[in-house]
User: Which sequence fits this backbone?
């Protein structure tokens, strides 16, 4: 009886997880407007705010209403956002400005502009040392900022072009190395690279999510693959199938789902508990919606996209030009279950 009860409970749990996943759908479109491209988004779940890097601004949306709260302005080309647990301070990577922007989260004013490496992109707050780590795409290094002084305290060389980082909260930061198809593990105390793990079968890893309970990393790659890595051993556990041209990943600890936002206009949901990491659902979003943020309190996924005009003619220096964004079509797509 106990064996039957246990098997029935597991089956019921699996069915519930599947049923929950199958109900994900686009529930809203929040029109933002404006001009130019965009990059990463970040959800401040407790404050019900969504931070969006959009061209030369960081726009802030109320996630209860979808309305614009305000914007951090005066930047050149924004990429990533990090938040200090103090609830007061935020950080943005200004790629074209080669700087880390420190801003006040109450009035969104710029408090400091701190020179970093060349083209800072991914950025994260490291809680054990209270430092901000900005990963510089062109200079292939990390600028480490002391949050107490807003001074750069170290610059760490990397073995290639970094993409999105994730801290484990216990003294390590992980980052995808796009041009080496690898993950690097950095020690925050010594500020050195400890390990470089190859991602066989993963081309150009970009977005990364983390499961701090099971010690796993989820790196999304070109070629329709998500690499799942055990970050204690560095072992590649498997490759899940996702959509094409991804740039961001997220993890839902409540439902054990890894998300991949894909430029082909899909959001892939991956079952991270089942052998082989099968796809639970593919949600149709919008072409170009390749970056996203996840709200762990509500379970909502926020993706950014716009409408596009024709691509310019290819040139030797730009053989694959991107199509132009049509002004005032930028929006946030809200996916929920």
Assistant:
């Amino acid at each position: 009886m106990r064996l039957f009860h246990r098997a029935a409970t597991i089956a019921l749990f699996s069915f519930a997880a599947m049923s929950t996943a199958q109900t994900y759908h686009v529930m809203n479109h929040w029109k933002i407007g404006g001009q130019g491209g965009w990059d990463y988004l970040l959800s401040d779940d407790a404050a019900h705010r969504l931070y969006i890097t959009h061209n030369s601004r960081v726009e802030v949306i109320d996630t209860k209403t979808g309305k614009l709260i305000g914007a951090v302005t005066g930047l050149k080309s924004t990429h990533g956002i990090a938040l200090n647990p103090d609830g007061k301070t935020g950080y943005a990577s200004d790629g074209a400005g080669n700087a880390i922007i420190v801003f006040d989260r109450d009035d969104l004013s710029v408090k400091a502009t701190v020179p970093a490496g060349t083209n800072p992109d991914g950025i994260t707050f490291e809680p054990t040392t209270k430092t901000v780590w900005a990963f510089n795409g062109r200079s292939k290094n990390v600028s480490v900022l002391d949050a107490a002084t807003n001074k750069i305290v170290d610059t760490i060389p990397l073995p290639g072009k970094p993409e999105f980082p994730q801290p484990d909260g216990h003294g390590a930061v992980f980052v995808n190395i796009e041009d080496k198809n690898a993950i690097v593990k950095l020690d925050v105390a010594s500020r050195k690279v400890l390990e470089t793990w190859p991602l066989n079968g993963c081309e150009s890893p970009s977005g990364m999510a983390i499961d701090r309970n099971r010690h796993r990393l989820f790196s999304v790659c070109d070629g329709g693959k998500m690499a799942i890595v055990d970050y204690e051993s560095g072992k590649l556990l498997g490759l899940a199938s996702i959509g094409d041209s991804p740039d961001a990943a997220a993890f839902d600890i409540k439902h054990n789902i890894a998300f991949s936002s894909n430029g082909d206009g899909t959001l892939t949901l991956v079952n991270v508990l089942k052998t082989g990491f099968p796809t639970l659902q593919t949600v149709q979003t919008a072409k170009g919606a390749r970056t996203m943020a996840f709200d762990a309190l509500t379970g909502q996924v926020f993706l950014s996209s716009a409408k596009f005009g024709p691509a310019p003619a290819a040139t030797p220096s730009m053989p694959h030009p991107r199509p132009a964004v049509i002004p005032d079509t930028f929006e946030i797509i809200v996916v929920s279950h």
